[in-house]
Design brief:
The complex is a heterotrimer of chains A (about 240), B (about 180) and C (about 350). In chain A, about 35% of the residues lie in helices and about 20% in strands. Chain A is an alpha/beta fold and about 240 residues long. Chain A has a single domain, classed as Rossmann fold, CATH 3.40.50. In chain A, helix 1 packs across helix 6 and helix 3 crosses helix 4. The termini of chain A are far apart. In chain A, about 55% of the residues are buried. Chain B is an alpha/beta fold and about 180 residues long. In chain B, strands 2-3-1-4-5-6 form a 6-stranded mixed sheet, sandwiched between helices. Classes of the chains: A alpha/beta (about 240), B alpha/beta (about 180), C alpha/beta (about 350). The interface between A and C is large, with 35 and 40 residues.
């Protein structure tokens, strides 16, 4: 009987540093599986963010670059322009992509750079200790919104919907890591976003609603339910463009 | 030999070009030259100017505080630069557009370059008339070099304008 | 050889292309706009990439990305824009990425003005951003040097895997002078030798470009290696020009545009048999301490130095540190658009 399942070639065989119930490990693995399946490991160049996934390059087993906080899409733009034969993707959190890096995000998208963007939305800054993110829900308690986010602190920023308005953007889908079914949909979307780059389609982004039990202050299973019952109401799942 | 020239006028009078023709011709005759434009927002205002230095040896500052020659193509430029005039500064004035009196103690050549250019058939060649007038007084490059430069600097689609510019330069050389 | 009239800005852009630069990203700011304009027109013909970035931050980080995959990459800006780029320069120094950054200095602080100044000497020669690092800094005086220094800058960047700053000013950028263009194609350059570059991990273990070291002790080790590299650069790469140092009683120290003005002043004074000399640092970091050793220590006590800058005493500190109290140091500085003239320098020397 042939082997039907094995460890991803694109993932080093070590444990991650992520908290119990965190979505990053799953997202890393989905990317690694897609890279294996598309047989592009030797062409991939990843741009890792500043955030909890800052050392993603310790987990993926392909070429990676660091980027300053928010600048992943500027770095990736140049890599792809200089080496169009490579497959270039960024992996960014909500603070990185939708706060400090909003400008780079909008303009890389508007130029229609042929890039793949994996956007992890967990509605909070994780690495720095659970502060309010641009995607934090109204009423959500964080280290810097101890009473819960109020409208005057800003509404949850729907950057995917904003980006969908831009002519340069070819594909946006929002998925979640809240159940096995949703995980499989996420993998499918990631695969599409990579395939688009291979086919020279253009700027493709997958927004992934991802659990952060630690800074949501709830057990992992409840965090998954919170994505389905609360977060997905504010950030509806499905194809946006 | 060192010659410091400030050329000033309104945007559109070909001030920068006048300076470039002068600098290019001097360079082709083996001189050290610098050409420094006024850059920034003021170029769209009252005056445009550039500073050209021609020398036998390496040039220090491209900026000119006290010019040896001053080519003035409109009123606001005279106002702007008259303070920098020193004894023996050669002043070349476009009397079509300058009605103020030039400062004393200068050697002044005043001619209606704009009116003369209109008569020649193109108002834009007033700059070449002024340049010719300048060369007539300060014989620092040869006429044939300047005529060659005018030809070389004209873009391919504007070679038709070479003749009238060369003609204007020659007319200018006759003005005293 | 044919000479053409070119501005310093255009000369730097053409020099970079001749040096094998194949990536440029920049953002508009006066007085360096001729550089991106020239790059936009000429880079595609050279088979390179030109991007007008959405910000100075994006531009420098694009250079980071291009350098990370082995391309000779460059950006340019002027003082306020260079301030914005400091974060990216720090990351490049940390990740040991080679790149060239042109700073066509203008008046500051703040928005300042667009006229020539040299008031960003500290920013360029100290770590302008966070962390213990140095950029190699070269200061051209003439348009010809603006062109000639570009290949040297890219070679130094690659040799030491370190950012190199070309420190010019609005005067250098905007002035047109005759330029000898040497067209020796140099873009055979070392891309294939950059084994660390990101190219996809075909046939090798993956490469990682980073400046982040969380494990206890790791960053310190990396920083010590950086310091070792800086020490090597300090020993090997001091560049300067000395004029009449043998018998000078007064030595002017000036760089860039200020140096060309001082040179003219020195030449005028020599015609009157005044014993004046010039030390003109070409590399501002490493600061050319060796030039001051030429003036031997016994003579040094009798020689007076005059530092002239278009700033209020920045390079002055390096001169004082180098002389270490062994000679009198006078100072002439203006900034904010004012440029000391030959006459001002001459009259200052007479007063010393």
């Amino acid at each position: 009987m042939g082997k039907v399942f094995s460890h991803s070639k694109s993932l080093r065989n070590i444990s991650t540093h992520y908290c119990a119930g965190c979505g990053h490990g799953i997202a890393h693995r989905l990317i690694a599986e897609v890279v294996d399946e598309l047989n592009i490991r030797e062409q991939v160049i990843a741009v890792a963010p500043v955030g909890c996934a800052v050392i993603a390059y310790d987990y993926w087993d392909f070429d990676c670059s660091e980027a300053a906080h928010g600048r992943a899409l500027a770095v990736a733009t140049a890599i792809k322009r200089v080496r169009p034969q490579n497959i270039v993707f960024t992996y960014q959190g909500d603070g990185d992509l939708a706060a400090i890096g909003t400008n780079e995000t909008i303009h890389a998208a508007n130029r229609g750079e042929n890039l793949t963007v994996i956007f992890i939305n967990n509605a909070v800054y994780g690495m720095t200790g659970g502060q309010m993110a641009p995607t934090t829900l109204l009423g959500q308690k964080t280290a810097t919104t101890p009473q819960g986010r109020k409208p005057e602190e800003g509404y949850p920023l729907k950057i995917s919907e904003m980006l969908a308005l831009l002519a340069g953007v070819k594909y946006i889908e929002r998925t979640a890591l809240s159940s096995p079914q949703e995980v499989m949909k996420t993998k499918k979307a990631i695969r599409q976003a990579f395939q688009n780059q291979i086919d020279h389609v253009g700027f493709s982004l997958v927004e992934i609603l991802s659990p952060c039990p630690t800074y949501w202050a709830m057990p992992p299973r409840q965090a998954l339910d919170w994505i389905n019952n609360v977060m997905a109401k504010e950030f509806p799942l499905g194809r946006i463009k | 030999m060192i010659e410091k020239i400030i050329i000033a006028g309104a945007g559109g009078q070909g001030i920068m070009l006048l300076g470039k023709v002068l600098a290019e011709a001097a360079m082709q005759e083996g001189k050290f030259v610098t050409w420094l434009p006024a850059y920034g927002a003021e170029v769209r205002g009252g005056t445009a100017h550039c500073m050209v230095i021609i020398s036998d040896r390496r040039i220090g500052s491209p900026r000119i505080n006290q010019p040896d020659s001053l080519i003035i193509m409109n009123n606001p430029s005279l106002k702007k630069f008259k303070e920098r005039v020193k004894n023996k500064t050669l002043l070349i004035i476009n009397s079509s557009l300058v009605d103020k009196l030039p400062p004393k103690n200068t050697e002044t050549l005043s001619h209606p370059f704009t009116d003369l250019a209109i008569k020649l058939g193109n108002i834009k060649v007033a700059n070449m008339l002024a340049l010719g007038c300048y060369f007539a007084r300060k014989n620092i490059v040869e006429e044939k070099t300047v005529l060659k430069v005018i030809f070389e600097m004209a873009p391919a689609d504007k070679k038709g304008l070479v003749e009238i510019n060369q003609k204007a330069l020659k007319e200018g050389l006759r003005l005293r | 050889m044919k000479r053409i009239l070119m501005t310093g800005n255009e000369a730097m852009a053409e020099g970079a292309i001749q040096a094998g630069c194949r990536f440029y990203a920049g953002y508009p700011i006066t007085p360096q706009n001729e550089i991106p304009a020239y790059m936009a027109g000429h880079m595609p013909q050279a088979g390179g990439v030109f991007i007008q970035a959405e910000s100075e931050l994006a531009a420098i980080n694009m250079v980071f990305g291009a350098a990370a995959c082995g391309a000779r990459a460059m950006t340019s800006s002027s003082s306020p824009g260079i301030s914005l780029k400091q974060e990216g320069i720090s990351y490049m120094a940390g990740a040991e990425l080679p790149a060239v950054i042109v700073d066509v200095m203008r008046g500051g602080p703040g928005l300042g003005n667009i006229w020539p100044a040299q008031s960003d000497y500290f920013q360029a020669t100290r770590s302008g951003g966070h962390g213990d690092y140095h950029c190699i800094v070269l200061a051209p005086s003439f348009v010809q040097e603006a062109y000639d220094f570009m290949p040297a800058a890219f070679d130094l960047a690659d040799k030491y895997r370190n950012p190199v700053i070309i420190l010019g000013d609005g005067m250098l950028g905007q002035t047109m002078e005759p330029l000898h263009v040497t067209t020796s194609p140099r873009h055979h350059v070392t891309r294939q030798n950059k084994k660390w570059a990101l190219t996809g991990c075909k046939g090798r273990t993956p490469n990682i470009v980073k400046s982040f070291y969380m494990k206890e002790g790791d960053l310190e080790k990396v920083n010590l290696l950086l310091q070792k590299k800086y020490k090597t650069i300090k020993i090997r790469e001091q560049r300067y020009e000395g004029l009449f140092l043998d018998d000078a009683k007064v030595i002017i120290v000036a760089y860039g545009t200020m140096a060309r003005i001082c040179r003219a002043a020195v030449e005028r004074l020599r015609e009157k048999a005044k014993k004046v000399g010039l030390i003109r640092p070409i590399s501002l970091w490493p600061f050319p301490e060796n030039a001051f050793r030429l003036v031997n220590s016994r003579a040094r006590r009798r020689v007076k130095f005059l530092v002239a800058e278009m700033s209020y005493g920045q390079m002055l500190e390096d001169v004082r540190l180098t002389l270490d109290g062994q000679a009198e140091v006078g100072f002439l500085g203006r900034s904010g658009g004012g440029i000391p003239s030959e006459e001002e320098i001459i009259s200052k020397i007479k007063k010393l």
